[in-house]
Write a structure and sequence with these properties.
mainly beta; Immunoglobulin-like; six-stranded mixed beta sheet; about 250 residues; 2 domains; 1 helix
Length: about 250
């Protein structure tokens, strides 16, 4: 009996300690929606991701939804502090629950204290974006070698370049003078950032992002022997062409 009493006291002490910690850091009362977005993976009809703006001070959420999708059947993905999220008292599961976003919704976040915080979610229907902004980060001869089935990546910094703009649809890249002529132009890697939803060179779809960020794509290795013509597609499905030309310094 004495052993049982000791175990009970230890259990109560442990529980008291845990509750004390929860109250000390305030997490017992925390109930906060941290992020909410619509991804293409969860919503195949979308052409790009949409991220909501959350104002914690006013407990409001503002989300744009493009006019080309049905807002009554969308799947939001979200992060929160608390134990559960619901919309108009119906439980939501991040990345899985279909939600009607055709009207203003009340989003509830429940905390460990069993209390709820209400957010007002307002949706604005917006036309698809026509932007095709494009910025080259680098054109270089980064090497990739396969050894015993493992791929290793490296780069030679001497092949970084800077550009001038011939016109809005033509970029001209010139090598730094102290690095001499371009190396073999048949196999150079293009790194870029863009507002377009897709970029293609011929039949190849390129991937945006830096090689350092792990966005390695076989499609981004291009033959720059002659000017390369890219096709940029905007969210509204309009397109424009962009030509990239490499020249050696005089």
């Amino acid at each position: 009996m004495r052993i049982n009493s000791i175990l009970e006291l230890l259990t109560l002490a442990l529980l008291s300690s845990l509750v004390s910690c929860v109250f000390t850091d305030g997490s017992f009362h925390t109930k906060e929606l941290l992020s909410l977005r619509l991804t293409m993976a969860d919503n195949p009809s979308l052409r790009k991701e949409y991220v909501a703006a959350i104002d914690q001070g006013t407990s409001t959420i503002r989300l744009n939804v493009p006019t080309y999708v049905d807002p009554s059947h969308l799947v939001p993905r979200f992060e929160f502090d608390g134990i559960a999220v619901s919309g108009d008292s119906l439980g939501w599961e991040s990345g899985k629950t279909f939600v009607d976003l055709s009207t203003t919704r009340t989003v509830q976040v429940k905390g460990l204290d069993d209390q709820e915080r209400n957010y007002t979610l307002t949706v604005t229907r917006t036309p698809p974006d026509a932007s095709t902004g494009f910025a080259v980060e680098a054109i270089d001869s980064s090497l990739y070698l396969s050894y015993n089935g493992t791929t290793y990546y490296g780069r030679n910094e001497q092949y970084w370049s800077h550009s001038t703009t011939a016109d809005a649809n033509h970029l001209v890249f010139t090598r730094y003078n102290d690095y001499g002529p371009w190396p073999n132009r048949t196999h150079l890697y293009l790194e870029y950032q863009t507002l377009a939803i897709s970029v293609s060179a011929g039949t190849s779809n390129l991937i945006s992002g830096s090689l350092y960020q792990g966005a390695f794509s076989e499609a981004n290795w291009l033959d720059f022997t002659n000017p390369v013509v890219l096709t940029l597609t905007a969210e509204d499905l309009s397109t424009r062409t962009l030509t990239i030309t490499l020249v050696d310094p005089l």
